[in-house]
Amino acid sequence: MSTRTETESEPAKRKAARPGTTGTGSLPTAPCSVVWSQGHAYVLEGFRARWVGVDDRGRPQALSGDELQRRGWSRTRGQ
User: Fold this and answer.
1) Rounded distance, CA 50 to CA 44, Å?
2) What per-residue confidence (pLDDT) applies to 13?
3) Which of 25, 26, 48, 50 has the highest CB neighbour count under 10 A?
4) What is the mean pLDDT of the chain?
C-alpha cells in the first residue's frame, strides 16, 4: 500500500511545466526551433534572431520575438 497521494496526474504536471506552450512563456532560443502562430509555422533563424514563416498568401514573413509574443504562439499547431 502506498502513502503517496497525487492531486494531479504526472503527464499533466509535465505538460504544465513546459514553458511557451500557451505563448505566455519565453520563446525557444535554439536555432531552427519551430513555433506556430495564427495557423502558420515560424522557424527561428539563429544568425539573425528572427522568426521566419509565410503569411496567408504564402509570402515570406519575418517577425521579431516581440512581434511573435504579441500575436500569440504555441509549440503545437492546434492553437
Assistant:
1) 6
2) 40
3) 50
4) 78
Q: What is the DSSP letter of 1?
A: -
Q: CA–CA separation, 39 vs 25, rounded Å? A: 19
Residue 58 one-letter amino acid: G
Residues for the chain: how many in total?
A: 79
The 3-class SS string of 4-39 reads CCCCCCHHHHHHHHCCCCCCCCCCCCCCCCEEEECC
C-alpha cell at 21: 506552450
User: Which grid coordinates are listed for 6?
Assistant: 497525487
Distance CA 49, CA 74 (A): 18
- Cell numbers for 20: 511557451
pLDDT digits (tens, 9 = 90+) for 25-55: 899 988 889 999 999 999 999 878 899 999 9
